[in-house]
Input
Amino acid sequence: MTERVLAPILSWQEFLDTARAPESIPDGDGRHGTAEWAGASWEEALRLAVDGWHLPLQEQRITVGALRERAGLGAPVMSLEPVWDVTGSEVDISAYLAGEPECMVDSVPRRVSRRGKVVTFLIPAAYSHETPHDSVRNRGLALAALCAALIGAGHGVEIWSGFTARAGEDEVYSGVARVITPGEPLDVGRLIFAVAHPAMLRRLWLAVWDGQDAATAAAFKAASYGRPPYTCRPGDLPGEVRDPYVFPYLDPGERQWGDLDTALAWCRAMFAELGLIQDRGPR
Output
């Protein structure tokens, strides 16, 4: 088995720079594929990658918060934490005997994270040419709602896009790119583009491969950029990334992405089972 593995791309800007790098073959599909197949022209794909893709939310006439409520994704996890002051509902006897003026205690609700660490998702970007654009969009919107719910519950979120495809009998092409870095504000438009727009794969990821050395780029293009299974693995990520959750790749035969409500229900059930959110049930 021959594996052609790209070095991990550690930021969204680095991913865009890699996709924009000069192509080493004259006919790569990243720049030259049809707009109908890719879902956008090359120039439009780059603009959406920078500005974000908000059209799905505009078409639904909802916000991500409303989408989260529609999914029944859970309320923030709460705990009661003691706060000391000169007034309060209870006396801290030890503080009082020590002469501390702030010897009164109140219990104040605080949002807390159940897991207490960053939740990492690896989202396979590759899928069959038979996969409907609507399935790509529905999965992406469901993931955006999920991430908003996790952040609201006090979690950190890290999103990676992964590309894995087979070519020929014994070749594997793979790479990963970080879309959302832990601790940065959630850029919903960027996230929706990266996981819900066909041009993420059919323009930007293919352009990344078109910019590799000429022999690699030409061979992969000749193999129609690979075939399934497009399975990503936890080991595809840098070694310091712990306990990632790897989404299944989009399969044209799967039904959970057929409409938005079904996609939302799938995400709600899966991540409630993992203990990351509270499942309030359908609204």
Q: What stands out?
A: DSSP finds twelve helices and eight strands in the chain. Residues 60 and 109 are 34 Å apart (CA to CA).
